[in-house]
Specification:
Layout (H helix, E strand, L loop, with lengths): L1 H25 L1 H15 L4 H5 L8 H7 L5 H12 L13 E6 L5 E6 L4 H19 L8 E4 L7 E3 L2 E4 L1 H5 L5 H4 L2 E2 L2 H4 L4 H12 L4 E5 L2 H15 L3 H4 L5 E5 L4 H11 L4 E8 L2 E5 L8 E3 L5 E7 L21 E8 L6 E12 L2 E8 L3 E2 L6 E2 H12 L5 E10 L8 E10 L4 H15 L1 H8 L7 E4 L4 H8 L17 H6 L5
Parallel strand pairs: 1-5, 3-6, 3-7, 7-8, 8-9, 19-20
Antiparallel strand pairs: 1-2, 4-5, 9-10, 10-11, 11-15, 12-13, 13-14, 14-15, 16-17, 18-19
Length: 499
């Protein structure tokens, strides 16, 4: 009886939530401009606000003139002041948290999360579940066990500000109605060594009635493989009531086939787009492609056409100015005190009613050693299309340029860890090359003009990418290996595992 009530209450809440959400979906463009001016007004007396003359900002155009696009290095002097306990610097209050992330150029980054911003981190995930329940008309999963593969919830203090990984911070804000169903135990979540942690999670969950599992795809795969190895059953056999997988952090599509093979049966997938800087989007209709952009979550968005990114006169477009099927660098202004902040993600709009996006890459993750500017979305789509034509399965891959090979033309080198190798690797390679040429005309021109030769594939031994992550101290949590690069830093390490 209690389970029946719990499920039906969830359905009622979900339908009300989705109905209420229609307002922000329909008025996103208008409300975004209001939101920016509200954020500016709130922060007018902060150090950043005074230095950038917030009192004179009355429009989006004023804001763009007064506040240049910034990365972490630009905001770091302000964040250092905040870390030392100074108040009223980027936002009116001291942050409630710092989300600590690893940066490639800045060392550790400390991303402020304000008291106003924190609730939206949880609300984004909650809204994704409510939209799923409403669309499905089924909330059975609320009566089973739920697991979030995440970082340690143990937080340190930086001048009195609680600091840790985002997933660990969010663990302190899981709604009460989910806490009783939640796994693994607090003690297991505190384990820092990722492999030891996953082994313990397997032990705690293998006999449970798991109904919802959440995490980024590479670590879900690691968890599932350990479960299968230990129990000899596919995941849907082990967890017959598993209804939903919630995932984010990387594009799910390249992992779909491998996940389906491990699952061994149908499980609904909901994709999300969370980050330390905010919860940006989620799949509001799990039967369709694209993520709903959250325009009412304390974040004002700007979009720079990818081909202009980094130029001093680059256009900064608002929601009402974007075009469909173009790639944009994502720029954020948030209610945690990030101002015109370049997060490094690239998005592509596939719908304007409501505004739905695909995460198409990273501004720093591209290959353009020869002027081709190939982005993550293109290589992922090329790989997906190729796999559909061959009986092959991919665990992970990485693309890097080979600029100065001995006595031959340069080429793109694809490092691929196959779960199941194609019957004819040469045919697979040619198809992959053709698929990338279809998606990037510059690459096609370089091949046609004999500037580049066709791509080459270097096969990697099993667990090569896990070994790479471990060697870099990035095994587990929200860490992921870039799918492509403009240099050979990752490639040179992976070369040690070439078969």
């Amino acid at each position: 009886m209690l389970n029946f009530l719990k499920k039906n209450v969830a359905l009622v809440w979900a339908n009300k939530h989705v109905q209420k959400a229609n307002d922000f979906k329909q008025n996103a463009e208008k409300n975004q401009d209001k939101l920016l001016l509200s954020l500016v007004k709130t922060a007018e007396k902060t150090l950043f606000g005074r230095e950038h003359q917030f009192e004179n900002i009355n429009s989006v155009e004023d804001f763009q003139k007064n506040v240049l696009v910034a990365d972490y290095e630009n905001l770091k002097p302000y964040i250092e002041k905040v870390k030392k306990g100074q108040r009223n610097i980027l936002w009116t209050e001291t942050p409630e948290y710092f989300a600590k992330t690893s940066g490639t150029t800045s060392g550790s980054k400390y991303i402020p999360i304000s008291k106003e911003g924190m609730p939206y981190q949880v609300a984004g995930a909650q809204s994704a579940l409510f939209h799923y329940i409403s669309k499905k008309g089924n909330a059975d999963f609320v009566n089973g066990k739920i697991i979030f593969l995440q970082g340690s919830p143990e937080l340190e203090e930086v001048f009195g500000i609680k600091t840790g990984r985002l997933s660990g911070i969010v663990a302190h804000h899981i709604p009460n109605y989910l806490q009783k169903n939640r796994l693994p135990s607090w003690e297991t979540n505190l384990i820092e060594d990722w492999e030891a942690k996953v082994d313990k999670i397997v032990e705690e969950t293998e006999k449970e009635n798991m109904t919802l599992i959440s995490g980024i795809p590479p670590w879900l795969i690691m968890y599932f493989e350990k479960l299968i190895e230990k129990n000899g059953k596919k995941i849907t056999q082990l967890f017959p009531n598993l209804q939903l997988i919630v995932t984010g952090g990387v594009n799910y599509e390249p992992y779909r086939e491998k996940m389906e093979e491990l699952l061994g049966g149908t499980v609904d997938i909901v994709q999300t787009f969370p980050a330390s800087e905010g919860f940006f989007a989620f799949q509001d209709d799990y039967t369709k492609e694209g993520l709903l952009l959250l325009t009412n979550h304390g974040i004002f968005y700007e979009f720079i056409p990818l081909e202009e990114y980094g130029k001093p006169d680059a256009a900064r477009l608002t929601l009402k100015e974007i075009e469909l099927n173009k790639d944009y660098a994502l720029i954020l202004t948030t209610n945690s005190g990030l101002w015109a902040y370049s997060i490094g993600d690239v998005v592509r709009f596939i719908d304007k009613n409501p505004h739905r996006i695909l995460v198409s890459g990273r501004t720093k993750h591209f290959t353009s050693a020869f002027g081709e500017h190939v982005i993550a979305f293109e290589v992922e789509e090329a790989m997906k299309a190729t796999i559909e034509k061959f009986p092959a399965q991919i665990t992970e891959f990485h693309l890097a340029p080979q600029v100065n090979p001995q006595n031959e033309l340069p080429y793109h080198e694809w490092f691929i860890e196959f779960e199941k190798e194609p019957d004819d690797l040469d045919l697979f390679k040619n198809e992959l090359d053709n698929q990338l040429r279809k998606r990037n005309t510059y690459y096609d021109d370089l091949i046609s003009g004999n500037i580049l030769q066709k791509l080459k594939i270097s096969k990697l031994s099993k667990n090569a990418f896990q070994e790479y992550a471990k060697s870099e101290g990035k095994l587990g949590g929200q860490n992921k290996t870039p799918r492509l690069a403009n240099d050979r830093k990752v490639a040179d390490i992976l070369t040690k595992n070439v078969i």
